[in-house]
Amino acid sequence: MVCALRPLPAAAQEANFYIFGQGQRIGSMTVTVLVTDDGWKVTSTGTLAAPVKLNTRLAEVTYDKAWHPRTLVVDALVDGKASTVKTTFTGTQAASDIVQEERQFQKTDTVDPQTIVMPNLIFGAYEALAARVSTAAPGATFRVYVAPQAEISVTLGSVSTERVSGPGRTFEARKHTLTFANPGGPLAVDLWTDGPRLMRIAIPSVGLEVIREDVATVASRTSSHYRANDADVSIGVGSYGFKLAGTLSTPANVAAATRLPAVVLIAGSGPVDRDETVYGIPIFAQLANALADAGFAVVRYDKRGVGQSGGRGEFATLNDYAEDAAAVVKFLEKRKDIDPKRIALVGHSEGAWVALLAARRAGSVSAVGLIAGVGTTGAQLNLEQQQYAFRAANTAEAERAAKVELQKKVQAAVLTGKGWDDVPADIRKQAESPWFASFLAFDPAPVIAKLDQPLFVIQGALDTQVPPHHAEKLGALANARKKAPTTEVAVLPGINHLLVPAKTGDVSEYVALSDRTISPEVAAKIAAWLKAVPLR
Questions:
Q1: Helix H or strand E encompassing 44
Q2: Are 338 and 428 part of one and the same domain?
Q3: What is the pLDDT of residues 272-316, one digit of tens each?
Q4: Pairing of strands 281-282, 277-278
Q5: 23 and 144 part of one domain
Q6: pLDDT, tens digit, for every residue of 333-350?
Q7: Which residue from 82, 200, 436, 529 has the highest number of Cβ atoms inside 10 Å of its Cβ?
């Protein structure tokens, strides 16, 4: 498919990219794009530590101005061994001279006259794909030559606009969802462009990301679900000496002097940003948008030590995260556009526990919503999740018993500080943390018993991380309180832990979810309940 070539200055434009695997930086590359009246030249150099040790000394692809490839040169070291590819394109023929693992040979492939040349693991070559998709409409199909292996097709799915904020600059980027028709099965790839230039690549199924340097820093963030009146907020956390960075979303066209009911969204476990992006699904960005449309002011924030927030997450406990949430409530209390008598906390997964703790120490909290919250102790959930994993993997009984015994030893050591000699060193390194100790020890029962705020429990029926019986348990604990309003429990059919439609709800299904939009029923249920909550 022919796409218009957007004009760029006839000068080399250089950009640095970082490569991440499973959240860890594994490489970098420098990409130079030169556009002249004669065509394109894309040059890249860089290193990669995994999945193979790759040192790309030079990778260069040239195209004419009508997007016909001309030449490819790759000079690299793969696991310390020289690997070179020199390809000349003539019409529909790609003739290559190749050196791989000390073997020299020639190869000729038939390719599309406008094929996009993208050697494996040479991410700079995505610049040509970025330029092509930047002017294409959903449904467009491109031919891509994974030189020198084979040619495949790439189909453009949806295209959406995202806002990127960084030091001194805010701009809009375009996110393109792509499907690569690989021989081993379709591969989903997300590609972001800044104009016709490459900004970011994400391959969720293998946990790989390639991010341009200027948007890879913690000072920059990308938001897929933003509102025209969204405001960045900075919230001090008591005596800790750092600030949380967040976003305040409000309804459109609010009359002057209106004091809005407010919702504080509290994310689950792990280094989660304000959008609570999990497996590429911005759960809180979508939920905040829907609740703002329903008439609420909504604050979501980067967890301490994540994104643009200060502080350190590696030493934080559930109580520390509750202090952060309480600080957000105090921030809202001081705002003239917020009704201090209608500030609710809504926590997801572990965030439900944080919401319960924060409600005890922030006096203005009028209601607490628990989404996919845990109704037992953390230690009990930990063992329950282990049993589910055994069933999913058909683990033999003898192996189950041994692993359960080891897990119990780990839990005892974490909670008491004793017995580490019976735990392998690598497992101790993972388990010995203040957060895990606070997680295992937490029991929602005594905390709920001391709360007098209205509670609401909402759960996905297909949740396998926190199964639905936890919602029933939380509802029973809440309804056992004296002089407290009845607690409603809503279990939504067909919804998983990430609040999106699913088939099985298993974690292994997350990367292949076709619908990455949270169920509208989640926000609708929460909004309806909050509007009906009586003033305390």
A1: strand 39-48
A2: no
A3: 899 998 888 899 999 999 999 999 999 999 999 888 888 888 889
A4: antiparallel
A5: yes
A6: 999 999 999 999 999 999
A7: 200
Task: For residues 197 and 87, state if they share a domain.
Answer: yes
Task: Give the range of the structural domain holding residue 56, as residue numbers without chain letter.
Answer: 13-221
**Last residue within a domain, chosen from 196, 221, 246:** 221
Q: What string of H, E and C letters represents the secondary structure of 141-198?
A: EEEEEECCCEEEEEEEEEEEEEEEEECCEEEEEEEEEEEEEECCEEEEEEEEEECCEE
Does residue 2 belong to any structural domain of this protein? no
Segment 42-48 long-range contacts (CB within 8 Å, at least 24 positions apart): 42/124, 42/125, 42/127, 42/128, 43/124, 44/122, 44/123, 44/124, 44/125, 46/17, 46/19, 46/123, 46/124, 48/19, 48/121
- pLDDT-derived band of residue 7, with 50, 70 and 90 as boundaries? very low
199 vs 34, 58, 131, 205, CA distance in Å? 16, 21, 11, 20
Q: What are phi and psi of 374, to 5 degrees?
A: -95, 130
Q: How many domains does the chain have?
A: 3
H or E, element range at 57: strand 54-64
Q: Is residue 248 part of a domain?
A: yes
Q: 81 and 210 in one domain?
A: yes
- For residue 351, the domain's CATH number is 3.40.50.1820
Q: To the nearest whole percent, how much of the chain has pLDDT over 90? A: 74
Kindly list the distances between the CA atom of residue 304 and the CA atoms of 122, 223, 259, 269, 435, in Å, as whole numbers in the listed order: 35, 18, 28, 12, 13
- The answer to whether the CB of 38 falls within 8 A of the CB of 64 is yes
Tell whether 429 is covered by a domain: yes
> What pLDDT, in 10s, does the model give residues 99-138?
987 789 999 999 999 999 999 999 999 999 999 999 999 9
What SS3 state is found at 433?
coil
**How many residues appear in the chain?**
536
Assess whether pLDDT exceeds 50 at residue 9: no
Vertex 205 angle, CA 200 and 211, to 5°: 15
**Please, what's the b/e burial string for 309-320 (b: 16 or more CB within 10 A of its CB; e: otherwise)?**
bbbebeebbbeb
Instruction: Write down which residue in 221, 237, 256 finishes a domain.
Output: 221
Residue 4 resides in a domain: no
Q: What is the mean pLDDT of the chain?
A: 91
